[in-house]
Amino acid sequence: MTPDLLLRGGTVLDPVADTETRADVHIRDGAIAAVGPDLNVEGVPVVDLDGAYISPGWMDMHVHLREPGFEHKETIATGCQAAAVGGFTAVACMPNTEPPIHTRDVVEFIIEQAAHTPVDVHPIACVSKQREGKELTEMAMLVESGAVAFSDDGSPVQHSGLMRRALEYSAMLDRPIINHMEDLTLNPHGHMHEGAVATRLGVPGIPALAEEVMIARDLLLAEVTGGHVHVAHISTGRAVELVRRTKARGVRVTAEVCTHHLALTDQAVEDTGYDTHTKMHPPLRPEADRQALIAGVADGTIDALCTDHAPHAAFEKEVEFIAAPFGILGLETAWGLIGRELMAPGHLSVLEAVRKLTVAPRAILGLPAPTLAEGAPANLTVFDATSEWTFTHAHIQSKSENTPFIDAPMVGRARGIYNKGQWVVAGENGKAS
Is 308 a catalytic residue? Predict the structure, then answer.
């Protein structure tokens, strides 16, 4: 525990007030004691930031912590360690665990397991019992126990009637439905994007249409019910346009994009010789879609940036491409990819990028955004936006290592977080201290 700390010589970003100020931050008893230039505080540890940014703590609203049930891939403790080193003070975890997050006891177990970590963990509960798409969960009870949203992530809510009822109930609870946007009847056995690369490689494809049809259905249902649909891991240009037009009509729809969809295309599958670390769901799409995603982030159609952090054990990924599970790590590489793909080319300013990691995800989930106001609990991220570095195995804090970004160049890196009275520093070698 580090209840008292002085962060000296930083640049404080306020994504709500849209301000950027050179200031020191004094933390006392885990709360913000003062923010201002040249603070004179004695008897506390001092961290010289040398101009690094300080912002409210980042949140990744789409991660898989795997516990309970799949602790060989990840645990809540190791996932939170990866989040902290990546700069995140909060995550929302998806319910495809075993048992799934469909009852009060599982929600409470996850919150309890995360209590000692420096990261706030917010469970996303199932839409349907056992994620089977047949019967709604006890949604009100799950919200009372701490669930912040509902999703059968990994298993789309195929039944339109069930989705309509879920939106009606969730509207009363003021919680979003986060659907895995895929019509499975259009993708019975796909493993990568359906297109020219898949045809050359002889790999069964996942059509963009499968995502777009499901999004179109859910946007219509949201309009009818008044419910809030959140589009998880959007990946196609036409999907972005559907969200853009529906938002313009005032429908309650929000969207997120994963950092890997901003950084890679389906060509990576061929270029890496069927590397299973390039297999994710939804799949990597062509360059035109990648550019459309970037445009959607820049114009605000896409609200939040996320990772879909999906750890798998080595033995699960070290198989033929078609036999491998979908998913890659994301927490440790998120900011470096955001810097490389969005900030360095000028698509987003630093403040705009921070807003999509702080205010936006919490607003979607109905959570208050942390502030650096005096007296507020200290919940902050320290980072830079321009340092160039190379991601290596040494930077991985997750229990798994399934990432295509080993030896990839990054721009910008998290330096540390402070939350729940704990100061966690991400060292140059990726290790936390």
Answer: yes
**Whether pLDDT at 300 is above 70:** yes
- Find the angle CA(78)-CA(83)-CA(88) to the nearest 5 degrees: 155
Q: Residue 427's pLDDT is what?
A: 63
Give one word for 428, left, alpha or beta, with left for phi > 0 and alpha for psi -120 to 50.
alpha
Selected catalytic residue, list 153, 266, 303, 308: 308
What are the tens digits of pLDDT across the range 270-297? 999 999 999 999 999 999 999 999 999 9
What are the b/e assignments for 114-145, b being 16+ CB within 10 Å? beebbbbbbbbbbbbbebebeebbebeebbeb
Pairing, β 253-258 against β 304-306 = parallel
* pTM reported for the whole predicted model: 0.96
Q: Does domain 57-365 have CATH number 3.90.180.10?
A: no
The pLDDT tens digits for 150-159 are 999 989 999 9
Confidence bin at 188 (pLDDT 50/70/90): confident
Distance CA(30)–CA(10), nearest Å, equals 18
142 dihedral zone (left: phi>0; alpha: psi -120 to 50; beta): alpha
H or E element at residue 81: helix 76-86
- Cα 412 to the chain's mean position, in Å? 17
Instruction: Place 238 in a pLDDT band, splitting at 50, 70 and 90.
Output: very high
Residue 93 has pLDDT above 90, yes or no: yes
CB 400 within 8 A of CB 311: yes
Q: How do the domains of the chain map onto residue ranges? A: 57-365
Give per-residue burial for 392-401: e unless 16+ CB within 10 Å, then b. Answer: eeebbbbbbe
Strand-pair category, 422-425 with 120-123: unpaired
String of DSSP letters for 22-52 = EEEEEEETTEEEEEETT----SS-EEE-TT-
Q: At what angle do helices 208-225 and 237-248 cross, to 10 degrees?
A: 10
